[in-house]
Amino acid sequence: MRVPPKFTQSLAVLVLGAATLLTVVVLVFIIAFVLVKGLPGVTWEFLSSPPKDMGKAGGILPTLVGTVLLPLLAIAIALPLGVGTAVYLTEYTRENPLTRALRFGTDCLAGIPSIIFGLFGFIFFVVMLKMGWCLLSGALTLAIMVLPTIIRTSEEAIRSVPNAYREVSFSLGATRWETVLKVVLPNALPGIVTGVILGIGRSIGETAAVIFTAGSSLRMPLSVFDSVRTMSVHFYILAREGISNENAYATAAVLIISVVLVNLAAYSMMHRFIAKRSK
Amino acid sequence: MSGSPNTVKIAVKSFRVFQGKEDALRGITLEIAANRILGIIGPAGAGKTTFLRALNRLNDLTPDTHVEGQVLLDGADIYHPAFDVVALRKRVGMLFALPVALPMSIAENVAYGPRLSGLRKRARLEEIVERSLKAAFLWDEVKDRLQMSGLRLSGGQQQRLCLARVLAMEELEVILLDEPCSGLDPISTAKIEDALAVLKERYTIILVTNNTKQAARVADDTAFFLQGELIEHGLTAKLFTVPDDKRTNDYVTGRFG
Fold this sequence. Notes:
Chain A is mostly helical. Chain A is built from 11 helices and 2 strands; from the N terminus they run H-H-E-E-H-H-H-H-H-H-H-H-H. Chain A is globular, with a radius of gyration of 23 Å.
């Protein structure tokens, strides 16, 4: 017996709708839970003063600074490398076994758990290169971690630039590099920014790789060779060691709000850029 | 710019193009006169566009393409390893079938070529933009909004913007047009054709068209391509009235294609 199409259609709507609803509810619940528990503790004083007593009292200023600096530095390192690789793979080489191997490699790299990167960063940067636990070790490790994401999103973005633009540019006497610089990259920018946002999101939330490489000092970092503690690490230590649940939740609330702010800033920058070009 | 009428601007000798395993052009020999409009007609798949793209080496960008024979521009073989491709494309400009305004302002679109050639002086660039847009019969429509994105122009205007962008190149000697009016309305088409009639005094023009009437209207000489071969080449008036080859006759009288 055949099930009437009308019935399967209603069933599909129901199942898909339920899946969407469940996803949204879980997401909203988590965010609301953290904000409700954490927001009461977020005061100006909490944001602007250093922690006291291992974080039992006081604020989170140094970790706030660490959370801003670490991902910024990581992206500053990963962006030129990642976009450069993507440009090379898409514009300067034709598909061949080597590019396929490179792409396979980046895909594998993207799936490796962050703690492995942390361990590598610890052994290579902290111990072998004798850099110690510091901002730079952490940023380099995070840069390697987000590199695959930036390479793949940039590659997709560059591929989606219409070939006709390239042909026009070449036909007007541009070299490949001039074409990349003036036509390809400006048009791939929105996609590249998406990769950067994903990368920032991943580095802000990263804990395992950061503890191993940037350390967990509560002092204010004064140079890239100082150890820092990010908010994620701070939250992890406060909660795990049972130091202060209130401050842990307040830190988490600040963290969530920062991620939202970073995304909003990046998107508005991107939209302003696009609007300027198509006005 | 150079040469008096009837000097040969481009000489094509036993020229073949292979794309993968199939031969797209099978030995073309053709002399293209300076300061005239050569129309290239023929049914789809005749190799017209491949031929055109070979003249400024845009075929280089297509994977698995290689060529045999010679294309001489003012006597120099453009496929010689020592020939500078970038310089070639500044001398031999191209207008594509689909108008492609780059996503930047109208003025920036026109100034793209000169800027690549290293021109930075503002006043000089503005002068070039104005001159080129006038030559492409677009100036009056856009002179008050040069900073607007080129993408916001209509299709017909974009195609004239593309023409202006080609004309802005100071090194320009030859203009290649690949069915430039295929997506345009009759009025826009007429404007492009008017522009070509003026431009041939300075440039050598090669026009690929699917529209035999357009070739009859604007071309001084016409070449008929069929399945990668040049069937016939001569004065437009002769080719359309008393062609030597039966296949040419069949095509221009609309019996096939």
